[in-house]
Amino acid sequence: MKRNLTLFFYGLMMFCTVNAQHTEKIYLSGTGNDHTVNWDFYCTNGMNAGKWTTIPVPSNWELQGFGKYDYGFAKDSIRGKEEGHYKYRFKVPANWSNKQINIVFEGSMTDTEVKINGVLAGEIHQGAFYVFKYNISKLLKYGTENLLEVRVSKHSANQSVNEAERKADFWIFGGIFRPVYLEALPNTHFERIQLDAKANGLLSGKLAILGNADKLEVQLYQKNGAVFGEKIIVPIKSNTSTAYFSKQFSDPKLWSSEFPNLYTAKFNLFKAGKVVHSTAKKIGFRTIEVKERDGIFVNGVKMKFKGVNRHSFYPSSGRTTSKKISIADVLLMKSMNMNAVRMSHYPPDSHFLDVCDSLGLYVMDELAGWHGSYDTATGTKLLKEMMVNDENHPSIVIWANGNEGGHNRDLDPIFLAEDFQKRAVIHPWEVFGGFETTHYREFNYGIGNYDHGHNIIMPTEFLHGMFDGGHGAGIEDYWNAMWQNPLSAGGFLWDFADQGVVRTDRNGEIDTDGNRGPDGIVGPYHEKEGSYYTIKEVWSPVFFEKRAITAAFDGVFNVENRYSFTNLNQCSFEWELRKFGKHQDLKTGKAISPNVKPYEKGKVKVNLIANWRDYDVLYITAKSPGDELLFTWSFPIVLPKDEAAKLLDKEANTAIKSNETDKNFEVSANGIHLTFNKLSGMLEKVANNGSSIPFNNGPVLQEGVNNFKDFTLKKNGNEVIIASTFNRKESYNTLQWIIYPSGIVKMEVNYFPSAYFTTFVGLNFSYPETEIKGIEYMGNGPNRVWKNRMKGNKFGVWLKDYNNAATGEVPFKYPEFKGYYSNLYWCKVIGKTHTFKVFTDREDVFLRLFTPKKSKDTEWDNMSPTFPNGDISFMNGISAIGTKTQKPETTGPMGMKHIFYDFEKEPARALNMTLYFDFSDELAHQ
After folding, report:
1. Which Gene3D superfamilies match (predicted)?
2. 21-55 pLDDT per residue, tens
3. Fewer Cβ atoms within 10 A, N terminus or C terminus of the chain?
4. 145: helix, coil or strand?
């Protein structure tokens, strides 16, 4: 009792208002996973069943060690039997006896029976994700203790609810997972306020009123509290239950994802000159319009939605979240330069919509329904509950009636009837209402629709990001097509974060249910995968045209403004010149922000210092009007041949020794001993002052033929050359080794791929994975790349420790170590016993480090993350990766195989790979 009273008075202080004419509120539960209140609890089945104990509210009971974990599809063997029984004792103030008291549940999974002092508060509520309430005024004891009893059935007695919510591709939970509170209203009060604030300044309202009032007043306030516009005064006739108003305001600041300007509308209801009820709503002036065969327009501007699907989810608390989590989610989305989010596949917490309003994200709000739908009676009730709770949020620009076949068409007209703003309704995965929203269509299918279709193209799910596939892999091709075509309204990636849940029955293990849950751009705790950075660059509203930095560089970059409402002169641009190596140096400055209007092109001019060519790279950073980082682009100044020349500048006075045996060529220089196979030309052994370095068995051509033949050894001045003999028919691929007195070894391979279409091409060496400690390299990093995911990295010098991390799996450690790296200049292989360096004078070389673990794909094996043989490779072309639903080649041109030369044309052009190897001891100490 003492505990309950303490919590009661704490809640009273925190959540009650001092003026009786306002809605007063007392929380019976906590407000989220960061603030809970213990209730008495009994679970009927599964973990810790059959005994009364306590549980935090709000929560999902599985995450608290009760019941049974289930990932979707209603596969629970004890469904229908797993129930949670809750009890909580509370008091209400004695002076509430003359008010209407509602008990409000913001979300309970799934069928919820509520009793107050042993009496049913109303019919059992069916449907998990909706705010519902009961008028319990006549059931309460005022000024003394009351008993709340709640019985929650994890699975519904209504089969349509199970079809819509439980037989779904996401974790299913049980419990009171969102807050519970009491609200006290005057007997005369606002029951519902529906608003529509247009971009032209016209504010309209429809208000449902319970009781007798004679006047309504509405006043708008700016963010700083200043009054905005004139007060709206509306006389109310006697016995009127609905009031309307319409008022024109001058020059309001408009709401958009770029400028989320909000106003506070305060409503006062009068009776005989006295205020009987006061409340407030946040509003944003904006106009949403769908133009047939054209697009979705916000404030008169056609939108390209850069969106993602988002579950209400947190690993340690399931569907119970908090405003802190909502803020973190929205900030992370906006940091990827997204402007939209789809609620998948149910309405979110109210605080998430509040955050979308205040920080700026366009929202597609969705009535639950996966491959099944609610029956009409249930769906009508739940739709109205969703509408009443969500309708006034300016962030909501479109409604979705279920998902992927979970569409009850009888509900479509109810959306229109209930929504005062008359926003459009879509059916995700269908062609409906002038929209083509089909999911996971191949790139060429999409292009066919763009070129030949007539609907607005807006896939509500595309590039299914299972493990490391999809998302960043393929998005550049898709977005280029979406950006260029006027029928495209953009799309929504699947999905935001891995659905990895903490298993209280498995010592806290994070479980994604195999390959069903690891679909996120970020990990369960928002760990950033490589695709995060690719999306950030591809979706940057400031687009830099590709260019090379040469001696003729004049500091000018071509840019495109891909904002909808922001001029680039509202953004800021910074530059940095950086020099790597022993004598590191950097210079920084600011560029003048150009006057480039939305959707137009212009130039950014960087006024560089006189000796800019002495530096290795130029970075340009763009920031938004709110100073958020949009992206940093890299423009290398130094070329690989320049860096190689510096690394080759190494003196040695020792003479080279060579020896020829029946099987091998043996060469020694400056303490380095090398053994080459006479027949194949392979590097078989490397030793440094007698200590073996386990780097050997190369080069082995990948998707090419090792037909190097007839090797000879000769001396050329102070160098030793081992070279194959070219024969057009039998040994058309050639290999040459040059050993310098410094001990540095040059390898040059000229080769032809073995097929017209190739997955990858390059050459491999052996190096035991058990020997590796890390890698330092100069190139693009720090994340690995795929053929169809090249963007998002930064040119620099990167030091990475070895890890065996796999994307989307425990321990969710990024960046991964194994994989492909682009734009290699040099790499230092850091072993447990030796360190050596490999560098090149050629551009566009890829480094491959070992073979990442192949995660469990679906039965279609669409991701196909293929890698060469060997352990460490140097590649002219690398492989792409697919998605859960698409092979790599169907994600666009970048996902297709390579074509490097034409068999039919003469002369055929060989590929070249030139590498230098430095096996000297001194590298370990640099």
Report:
1. 2.70.98.10, Galactose-binding domain-like (2.60.120.260), Glycosidases (3.20.20.80), Immunoglobulins (2.60.40.10)
2. 899 999 999 999 999 999 999 999 999 999 999 99
3. N
4. strand
